[in-house]
Amino acid sequence: xxxxxxxxxxxxxxxxxLRLDWMQVDVHSHLIPGIDDGAKTIEESISLIRxxxxxxLRKIITTPHVMSEFYKNTPESIIAGLKLVQEALIxxxxxxxxxxxxxxxxxxxxxxxxxxxxxLLPIANNYVLVETGxxxxxxxxxxxxxxxxxxxxxxxxxxPERYQYLIQDKKLLSDLIDREVYFQINLLSLTGFYSKPIKxxxxxxxxxxxxxxxxxxxxxxxxxxxxxxxxxxxxxxKLQQQxxxxxxL
Length: 249
Prior knowledge:
Blueprint: H1 3-13, E1 25-26, H2 42-54, E2 59-62, E3 65-66, H3 75-91, E4 97-100, E5 103-105, H4 108-115, E6 127-131, H5 141-150, E7 154-158, H6 164-168, H7 170-178, E8 182-186, H8 196-207, E9 211-215, H9 221-227, H10 236-240
Parallel strand pairs: 1-2, 2-4, 3-5, 5-6, 6-7, 7-8, 8-9
Helix pairs in contact: 4-5
């Protein structure tokens, strides 16, 4: 073994294994097979859930995409898929609570759904997970948030650290904070999985205590493989001390 490899292995040995007991509940994942870009088969779903449970999660709220262009999921199709996975978990004797919500893409069709009073699937209580495109801010962003609030929903902005328009627009960030829109950070962002700017923005939001939820956003085993490196982050201990809502769900 060369000196460099020896030093790398020695450094890796200094870090503790990843645990998610402190979070208890994951509020963002894609584990219902075949209905979005997450798990493809029931076998993959069960394998991912078993692994997540072994990391210390007692509850997983899986959140399939609802996007008018690509993933036309409905509460009925999501709940039907959830039941299949729940039955498989019982067969496999995996004692973890699995429920389902949705990750809604903000566009005109979603706004129509809200204004027409269509049923949404919250992650808990009235918290509804929403997302946008990564590059450009939706023109109707605040209009949609207002419509949701009028219907009694509390918007939870999925992975805001990944939106380039938000990283570049400090006033928009301030406006969202002033409006008390809840932020959900992806744990993977702290590993540098997406990019260094995204990692830095996530760290800033944590430092400023603007984060209300953490999530894995797990789609497949590659996500969990990379998540295993989270204890190497200087924020691993800090994020465990955040006053987030996960463990109360």
